[in-house]
Specification:
single chain; mainly alpha; three-stranded antiparallel sheet; 11 helices; 7 strands; 9% strand
């Protein structure tokens, strides 16, 4: 339905109104339910445009990070009840125009991610920072329906083990936990979140094609920290338990994260010691079976 595409495009135009590096085609007055009329975009698919321009690696990384900031970080870190994301951001739908701006086209498919899901994703991230397996499982259960609680608990163990192996508990880590929970943990994501994950898969594949060294975590987590810094003066006079912030986390939860740091460090090092003991026991068990 083209009228739905037009609605998505209007909402996206409002979202990117103050983002100079992102441009959207403007809807023209003669749009109908059967026709979407919009201004002409002069440019090329972004990967083709960058390859043709012969840009160096540093410039490509900057553009890739702008792409991540515009299509992931900006809609994610907003306080509105519903956040809109481009639902099909493959290379053919993301143009780079003659003015050097990123132009997301084809808004017929859009993901509207509710505040509840963004809160749950933040709870998952904070559970990783606390090295809390139970909190990881609880956050995942808020994002979907588990068909096997025991398998989902194993995903919680896998999530914290991956941090001990050097994975930073940021946005990329959250996505890897989603994937593990769906593939091995018996978790069935809700429709909006499943579509969101699919859209991210397409977008991150495009980012990898443009600039393999671009860091999603640096952009998304950095944008969240910048939002948190801007909220801090207002938080001093607000209800400490409200999550009605663009960062989706209450002041009380942030304070708990800070006070839990000694316990988080203890969980981390005890887990590392357990991993060492398990690795030492493995050869002995192998010899016994042999």
């Amino acid at each position: 339905r083209l009228d739905r595409e037009q609605t998505h495009l209007r909402r996206a135009t409002e979202l990117y109104r103050d983002v100079p590096e992102v441009a959207l085609p403007k809807l023209l007055p003669w749009c109908t339910a059967r026709v979407t009329a919009m201004t002409l975009v002069r440019g090329k698919p972004i990967a083709e445009a960058l390859n043709g321009a012969g840009m160096d690696k540093a410039a490509r990384v900057r553009i890739a990070e702008r792409l991540v900031d515009g299509l992931i970080a900006r809609p994610f870190w907003m306080s509105e009840t519903w956040a809109i994301f481009h639902g099909d951001p493959h290379g053919g739908n993301i143009f780079y125009d003659e003015d050097g701006k990123i132009v997301p086209l084809d808004w017929s498919l859009a993901v509207e991610l509710p505040k509840h899901d963004r809160v749950a994703i933040l709870q998952l991230l904070m559970a990783g920072l606390r090295m809390d397996e139970k909190a990881v499982v609880l956050a995942l259960s808020e994002l979907g329906i588990s068909s096997d609680d025991e398998k989902l608990k194993l995903t919680g163990q896998w999530a914290t083990a991956s941090i001990r192996k050097g994975k930073f508990p940021g946005f990329d880590w959250c996505l890897s936990v989603f994937d593990h929970a769906v593939e091995f943990g018996g978790l069935r994501l809700r429709a909006e979140l499943a579509l969101f994950r699919k859209a991210l898969f397409s977008l991150l594949a495009l980012v990898e094609d443009i600039a393999p060294k671009a860091s999603t975590d640096t952009v998304v987590v950095g944008a969240g920290l910048a939002r948190l810094a801007s909220e801090w003066p207002s938080r001093a006079f607000a209800n400490p338990f409200t999550r009605n912030w663009s960062t989706h986390v209450s002041t009380a939860e942030l304070m708990k994260l800070c006070t839990d740091m000694p316990m988080s460090a203890t969980r981390f090092w005890l887990g590392c010691w357990s991993d060492v003991l398990s690795a030492a026991d493995a050869p002995e068990k192998y010899q016994e079976h042999a």
